[in-house]
Each structure stands twice: as structure tokens, then as C-alpha cells.
């Protein structure tokens, strides 16, 4: 099966490309490097021992999408391509709505036109807002999103669901990720944010590497064990494997109109300070961090119940928080080594 991976040079996309190829699929990448780097393609080549077919294109470009679908005979699509920083979305909501919604609509239209039946959508636990009860299940009501980014994920889910239920030949699964961390164990691909990181772990690793002077913890007065936010941190390799399982599940479903959602997490919550202390412990170093004010758009605490994805999809998280933080630091060290070699 040939699978289109939009945003396949990004953090989760690149790791999913590895797992797709390992599972016998043929991944094809579309990416315009709006939030990724061409170096990911070199990393994939080293890991896989081969080049992955790649198109430098924007998923909002109808002409480009049609040309690619015309040339390739896709049997499925995994749709990662989106703007994804919570804080930036609060500051630039129209940019997020235009990019994230339009690209999803165009992709669905193109899939219908070329008869591509299977879609795995990269959604997010942000669609739950601040849930009233934890852990969250797939039946937990979606509350108003705390950010425009989260709202785009909820709206995209609805667009996909309505399209599937309208009698189109598309089957779809939305994976609601919790907080991906880590990197490939080789240290050859990982999270490479452009500019100031919006996520916790790359900010931790950049602080440890001396790129950032200090790490600011946003808020210490939440109703949690140590006052800092709680998240469900999942290793990116585990998350990538969930996409392979989702494709297998879609391929096994013969009925028209199949659409489902799955939480993808570990089922365990950790505070920001627990993550910092674990990083210090497993990597034998000290971080320079301070406590700052709360950040707009942040949810106090959220973690998953994962019974459904375990039972229906046959997937479960295998890697620990400590492994994720060790892999993230190995990736950061490799990045800095490459930079020093280039600098001479």
C-alpha cells in the first residue's frame, strides 16, 4: 500500500514514515518545510538505507495536490500537515484557521476525486479543553477549546466525520494524541522546532545544551501535586506505530461510512516539574529553570484512558518517560555536534 504522509518531514511525520516502511508500506512525503527542516530527509535516508519519495508542496495548493495524486496511486493518507503551536494560535488565529481547515478540506476533495479510501487524521487531546473528569475517554465531551489550534482540530474532526457519513467512499480514523516527546533511538531524527520551541521537551533540551539561558515553567499555582500542569507524555516512536495500526484497522473495515476516534497516550499524567526532574536524573545534569506566570491557552491537567486503543486497535505504549527524555537529549546532542562540525 502506497501511503501519502502530509507533513512527513515533521517531528511525528518523520517517525511515522520509518514505522510505515518497517511495516511494509510505501510512504510518500509532502512537506513545504513551514514547520520542519530538509535535514529530516537525510536522517530518514540514514535510518532506512534508502530515499523516501518526496514532494516539496503545500497542502493548500490544489494544483500541486492534483498533480501528485495523478502521478501516485495512493491507498491511504496520513494527514499531519498543520500549524501546531498553542501560543502562536492565540496570537494569530486567522493564520491557523486558514491553513489547518483549508488544507483538510482540499485533501478530502482530492481523495474523493482519485478514489483514495483511507484517512488517518492527526488530531489532539486539545479538543477536550479542560475536562471535568480524568482520565479522558473517547466519550468525554469535547469542551470549548482553550486555543484556536485546538479548535481547528475539533473542526477538522467534524469536517472529516461529516464527509465520511455523507456517503463518500472514504473511511477515516482521528487519533487524538496527548504529548509526544523523544526521538528515534538512533538520534538521527527528532523534534526540530523553528525559532523558540512551543513544547516543553525541546525547550528543556535546548536549555541543557546552552542554546536557551533558562527554562520558564508557566505557572506553579495549578491544582496539581506540585502546582505545575499535568500532561500525558508519549514517546514519538510509540505514537508513530499507532498510525500503522490505524491504517491496518481501516484496511480491515469493509463497511462504508466507517469513522472512529482513538485517544493515543500512556494513560498516565506527569507534572512539568516531574518531567524536569526526570530529565535531570536520567541524563545526569542540572537545568536552569524559573517559575513564571501562567501561559494563555494552557490546560491545567489532562491524561488519557487508553482502553479503546488497546482493545480495538491492538496498540499500547511501550516506552517510558525516562526513555523519551534520554532519546530527546541524544537527539539534541547530535544536533549540536553537527552544528559544531559545520562551524569548523
TrEMBL record:
It is an enzyme of class 5 (isomerase). Pathway: Carbohydrate metabolism; galactose metabolism. The keyword Cytoplasm does not apply. Keywords: Carbohydrate metabolism, Isomerase, NAD. Pfam families: GDP_Man_Dehyd. One of its GO terms (biological process) is galactose metabolic process. It catalyses: UDP-alpha-D-glucose = UDP-alpha-D-galactose. InterPro entries: NAD(P)-bd_dom (IPR016040), NAD(P)-bd_dom_sf (IPR036291), UDP_G4E (IPR005886). PANTHER family: UDP-GLUCOSE 4-EPIMERASE. GO terms for molecular function: UDP-glucose 4-epimerase activity. NCBIfam families: galE. GO terms for cellular component: cytosol. This is UDP-glucose 4-epimerase. Its EC number is 5.1.3.2. CDD domains: UDP_G4E_1_SDR_e (cd05247). Signal peptide: none annotated. Its cofactor is NAD(+). Homodimer. It comes from the Bacteria. The keyword Magnesium does not apply. Belongs to the NAD(P)-dependent epimerase/dehydratase family. Residues 4-327 form the NAD(P)-binding domain.
Amino acid at each position: 500500500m502506497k501511503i501519502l504522509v502530509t507533513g512527513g518531514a515533521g517531528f511525528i511525520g518523520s517517525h511515522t514514515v520509518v514505522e510505515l516502511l518497517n511495516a511494509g508500506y510505501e510512504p510518500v512525503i509532502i512537506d513545504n518545510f513551514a514547520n520542519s527542516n530538509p535535514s529530516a530527509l537525510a536522517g530518514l535516508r540514514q535510518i532506512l538505507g534508502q530515499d523516501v519519495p518526496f514532494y516539496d508542496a503545500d497542502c493548500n495548493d490544489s494544483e500541486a495536490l492534483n498533480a501528485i495524486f495523478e502521478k501516485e496511486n495512493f491507498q491511504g493518507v496520513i494527514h499531519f500537515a498543520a500549524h501546531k503551536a498553542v501560543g502562536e494560535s492565540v496570537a494569530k488565529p486567522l493564520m491557523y484557521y486558514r491553513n489547518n481547515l483549508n488544507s483538510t478540506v482540499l485533501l478530502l476533495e482530492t481523495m474523493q476525486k482519485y478514489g483514495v479510501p483511507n484517512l488517518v487524521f492527526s488530531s489532539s487531546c486539545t479538543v477536550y479543553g479542560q475536562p471535568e473528569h480524568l482520565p479522558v475517554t473517547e466519550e468525554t465531551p469535547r469542551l470549548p477549546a482553550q486555543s484556536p489550534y485546538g479548535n481547528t482540530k475539533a473542526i477538522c474532526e467534524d469536517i472529516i466525520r461529516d464527509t465520511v457519513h455523507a456517503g463518500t467512499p472514504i473511511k477515516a480514523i482521528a487519533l487524538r494524541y496527548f504529548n509526544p516527546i523523544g526521538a528515534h533511538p538512533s538520534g538521527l531524527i527528532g523534534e526540530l522546532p523553528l525559532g523558540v520551541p512551543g513544547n516543553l521537551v525541546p525547550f528543556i533540551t535546548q536549555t541543557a545544551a546552552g542554546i536557551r539561558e533558562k527554562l520558564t515553567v508557566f505557572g506553579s499555582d495549578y491544582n496539581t501535586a506540585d502546582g505545575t500542569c499535568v500532561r500525558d507524555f508519549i514517546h514519538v516512536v510509540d505514537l508513530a506505530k499507532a498510525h500503522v495500526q490505524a491504517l491496518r484497522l481501516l484496511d480491515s473495515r469493509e463497511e462504508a461510512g466507517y469513522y472512529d476516534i482513538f485517544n493515543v497516550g500512556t494513560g498516565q499524567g506527569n507534572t512539568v516539574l516531574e518531567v524536569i526532574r526526570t530529565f535531570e536524573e536520567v541524563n545526569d545534569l542540572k537545568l536552569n529553570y524559573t517559575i513564571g506566570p501562567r501561559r494563555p491557552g494552557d490546560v491545567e491537567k489532562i491524561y488519557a484512558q487508553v482502553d479503546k486503543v488497546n482493545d480495538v486497535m491492538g496498540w499500547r505504549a511501550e516506552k517510558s518517560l525516562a526513555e523519551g527524555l534520554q532519546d530527546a537529549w541524544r537527539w539534541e546532542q547530535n544536533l549540536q555536534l553537527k552544528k559544531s562540525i559545520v562551524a569548523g
